[in-house]
Amino acid sequence: MKVLVIGDSCKDVFVYGRCDRLAPSGPVPVFVPLYSKKNRGMAGNVYENLLSLTTIEADLITNKREIIKTRYVEERTNHMFVRVDSKEDTVERIENIEKIRFDNYSAIVISDYDKGFLSEEDIFYIGKS
What span, in angstroms and rounded, lies between the C-alpha atoms of 50 and 57? Predict the structure, then answer.
């Protein structure tokens, strides 16, 4: 089975650390980073999940410019303290959608996070293809 994933993607960054005290200057936790992990997010995450299924072959069509979402997570509790997104969280619209051979795929997954990669017209076009 061959699947096409099409939609907005980002890089998910998880910064794990410890919070053992509050800051003396204000009632906020002091976060001490220990390590980080990076992986594909949004449509990229869907694509990676499909690839983990050994019976599926998948392709990904997504934005070129990267959105970065950084989460600061307390290591022991897995509590997310804050998420910091890159300044720009919109991307360029897909180009040449009419050249994509949708009939080459058994299934198409649209993973739209409303960041601008797909318009409503693009989604209708994919659905009709």
Answer: 8
* Number of Cβ atoms within 10 Å of the Cβ of 40: 18
* Whether the Cβ atoms of residue 41 and residue 9 lie closer than 8 Å to each other: yes
Give the length of the chain.
129
**Amino acid (one-letter) located at 31:** F
- How would you write the pLDDT of the chain (129 residues) with one tens digit per residue? 999 999 999 999 999 999 999 999 999 999 999 999 999 999 999 999 999 998 899 999 999 999 999 999 999 999 999 999 988 889 999 999 999 999 999 999 999 999 999 999 999 999 988
